[in-house]
Amino acid sequence: MNIQTQPRLLQSYVCGQWRTGSRDGKPLLNAATGEVVALIDASGFAHAETLDYGRSKGGPALRALTTHQRALMLKEIGLKLLDMKEDFYAESLWTGATRADGWVDIEGGIGTLLTMASKARRELPNVHVIPDGPVEKLSQDDSFSAQHILSPMEGVAIHINAFNFPVWGMLEKIAPNLIAGMPAIVKPASQTAYLTELMVRRIIDMDILPEGALQLVAGSAGDLLDHVTCQDVVTFTGSAETGRRLRTSPAIIENSVRFTMEADSLNASILGSDAGPGSEEFDLFIREIQREMTSKAGQKCTAIRRAILPAQHVDAAIAALSERLGKTVTGDPADKQTRMGPLASLDQREEVRDRIAELQRSARIVLGDPDEVQVGSGDTKRGAFVNPVVMLAEDPAQAAAHDVEAFGPVVTLMPYESNEQAVSLARQGKGSLVASVFTNSNEVAHDLVLGIASYHGRVMIGNRKSAKSSTGHGSPLAPLIHGGPGRAGGGEELGGMRAVKHYMQRSAIQGPPELLTAVTGIWSDGADAQQGQHPFRKPVSELRLGDQIVTPAREVTQEDVEHFAHFTGDTFYAHMDSEAAKANPFFDDRVAHGYLIASFAAGLFVDPDPGPVLANYGVDNLRFLIPVYFGDTLQVRLTCKEINPRENAEHAEVRWDCRVTNQKDEVVAQYDVLTMVAKEWP
Ligand code: NDP
């Protein structure tokens, strides 16, 4: 039981200080009990200064760090937040969230932060500027090339968030911008801002982030968006109407400010025509609808609003939903028996009731009464409770549910007769964050998923095999895109390291290779190279980009190829049977194995003695470009291409450009050799 004695006056963290607004705070109420839990006001701030503070203080400090250093800060913050999670759960109850709902927000949010921090260290180089794609050769003689790079935007990332995920909404957005090297200003929705404020307070107290990297506006945004410039990025989650207004605000238009929007989304779940009552897929479909209606009381941007199902299964679906929803106890989230908490506020309940009335113009209620509330616990007058409502649109093409979002535990059933009709109904949502398809048929999965993919940011297929492992319809995951076209806002968040790149500018850098290397930290053909001591003798402290070895040549004989074939068991005809090889359109005769070429290359370029090269952990982009025949000779040129020191470790990842040529100086194989090299070697 959580007892709040004194409502807290929320503060904003701007320009390095916790500050209160200039007016009396507006009361924020516990969603279940109606008690005042906090007071909020952010008036009187001059946000030109807030933005400037982020740009001038947080930005340079973050950009002075490398990608991995920034990711490690987030890891440390995430682990500390996990240790204090119970404090967040206590306030999460005030929002109307049950423990299970709070888990999605709090531990889901912290988990997202930690996943992004870990992926950044695995997938991004440890650099200030991230290379994007390969070097593009623009001249025959290697005197002019190009490379795309990503550099951090030099403004601030302003995140305007919705009330339903006060923690996850902040963390999933600040993780990418902080990894990118950009400071953030978070503006949570007022209704649940106390929880965001508590977490920001804890993060600031940790003293891990550089000053100015994270600011908070707890209260209305004021003039925050009036001062944005071309280097700032704005993200928005909330209603489509507010989103449209903000997206077209003058400074955003004037300065072409990047604006990512995630708004109302009328997500669909489709039951495949193969999956009738009694099948596991039917049960999974029903369970998912119930879960999406009741988790966060349906206040999820990804919740199922439209359930599209074969017409002959409508009655069975209503009966199954009635049984499942009948067991869902609505009540005070502090009560352990409660499975579904209240909506975030009484205003939200009025809003949901109004939307249901709109939906009723083209659909009828088959389960639940929006005006009658039955609860297991809690005050039905002061608490924003509402029971689940299931509607049926008998003429589904005309259903208002394709246009109207009731942001609560409400779903509309839409019967269909053919796969084409199911696809067409899903697309009537005009672009959604997510859809799910429950089927155990290859054809149904193929037809439905490809039919709707271009209208959705994510499509989840569910069947009996994935029933236990599936992460579900409603869960955005850090490695996967979250966002959708059209009505869903047209934005894209998460998606692993894609998210980081939204906060960086991609530039194509063209020039002579040696100057490109100086800019990008990647050696390429045509750039300066130096030969001398074998580069495998050099620790990272001595190794330089362009350190190179050109090996002596080695002949490839028939005996070599036959020995390799029998030794490895790879007796593929192209290496063993002259006639069969000649019949192959790519070969004139028997050829050497590609892996024999790579093995001989290693035999040519390695320095065998113990030294700073610790291990070979793979190759990238391996291509065998032309055949090697018996009697050909191979020679290797190995050049130090990229050096990536690991933070908190005694080694760097070093990438070597490996080019294998024949006696005619034709490139027969090309690849990157990946090694770990000690930073120092005695
Ligand atoms: P709003 O669109 O009103 O608010 C979203 C965010 O925008 C809040 O942080 C809000 O701040 C802020 N905001 C509002 N006006 C401005 C402004 N002029 N300048 C800057 N920021 C502004 O959505 P609500 O949270 O009130 O929810 C309303 C409806 O939106 C819901 O009923 C639901 O239908 C939909 N919604 C959809 C979501 C989705 O992800 N699909 C998520 C949440 C809501 P403040 O709270 O201080 O006003």
SS strand fraction: 15-25%
Number of domains: 3
CATH architecture of the largest domain: 3-Layer(aba) Sandwich
Q: Give me the count of strands.
A: 29
Helix/strand/pairing category: alpha/beta
Q: By CATH's scheme, which homologous superfamily of the largest domain applies?
A: Aldehyde Dehydrogenase, Chain A, domain 2
Let me know the largest β-sheet.
7 strands, mixed
Bound ligands, each once: NADPH dihydro-nicotinamide-adenine-dinucleotide phosphate
CATH C-level name of the largest domain = Alpha Beta
- What CATH calls the topology of the largest domain is Aldehyde Dehydrogenase, Chain A, domain 2
Low-confidence stretches: none
Describe this structure in words.
The chain is an alpha/beta fold and 682 residues long. The protein has three domains: 8-144 and 158-211, 3-Layer(aba) Sandwich (Aldehyde Dehydrogenase, Chain A, domain 1); 268-488, Aldehyde Dehydrogenase, Chain A, domain 2 (3-Layer(aba) Sandwich); 529-678, Thiol Ester Dehydrase, Chain A. Helices cover 31% and strands 24% of the residues. It contains 19 helices and 29 strands. The strands form seven sheets. A seven-stranded mixed beta sheet has the order 15-16-17-14-13-18-19, sandwiched between helices. Strands 23, 24, 25, 26, 27, 28 and 29 form a seven-stranded mixed beta sheet that branches. The longest helix is centred in the N-terminal third of the chain and has 25 residues, at 99-123. The model has no long low-confidence stretch (mean pLDDT 96). NADPH dihydro-nicotinamide-adenine-dinucleotide phosphate (NDP) binds at residues 160-164, 187, 189-191, 220-221, 237-239, 242, 246, 262-265, 301, 348, 351, 405, 407. Keywords: Oxidoreductase. Residues 547-654 form the MaoC-like domain. Residues 465-485 are annotated as: Disordered.
